[in-house]
Amino acid sequence: MFYGEYAHAIDNKGRVIVPSRFRDALLEHGEKCYATRGLDRCLFLFPEAEWRVQEQKFRELPFTKTDSRKFNRLYFAGAAEVMCDNQGRILLPSYLKDFAGIKRDVIIIGVSNRIEIWAKEQWEQYYREAKESFEQISEKLLDEPHP
Q1: How far apart are CA 60 and CA 28, in angstroms?
Q2: What is the CA radius of gyration of the chain?
Q3: Predicted confidence (pLDDT) per residue in 117-137, tens digit
Q4: What is the predicted pLDDT for the residue at 93?
Q5: Low-confidence ranges of the chain (pLDDT < 70)
Q6: Measured distance CA(28)–CA(15) in Å, rounded
Q7: CATH dotted code for 2-120
Q8: N or C: which end of the chain has fewer CB within 10 A?
Q9: d(CA 107, CA 124)
Q10: How does the average pLDDT of the chain come out, rounded?
Q11: Which residue in 30, 11, 147 sits closest to 90, CA to CA?
């Protein structure tokens, strides 16, 4: 659904252009989308249909567990309903930009069912560190026999 990496910048009103390929995929799933605090200091952006799937999963976490309550509070309190304007921009709330350390330059990546929005510096650092272990991680996760 969402694939690729794109560099953009936040304008002076706090808006960012959603790449056209991503906009088309978002519109296939409704007009609304949801931005929230992601993991690794990025923002997650979900089309409405996928947001509802995620919401149901997290709703089923036991509220009697401290970690469940903490996660749900941070995740859902950070959520904002956003819509693309006529130029394909979305307005990111300041508290989400602050969370992700976004000032101006961003990297927008597609991660299958969601879009991630990163401060450019954060993404570059994350990528440098993660690419070193990409092969080892794939071996662990994919667990395929090797010739």
Answers
A1: 27
A2: 16
A3: 999 999 999 999 998 888 888
A4: 96
A5: 144-147
A6: 22
A7: 3.40.1550.20
A8: C
A9: 9
A10: 92
A11: 11
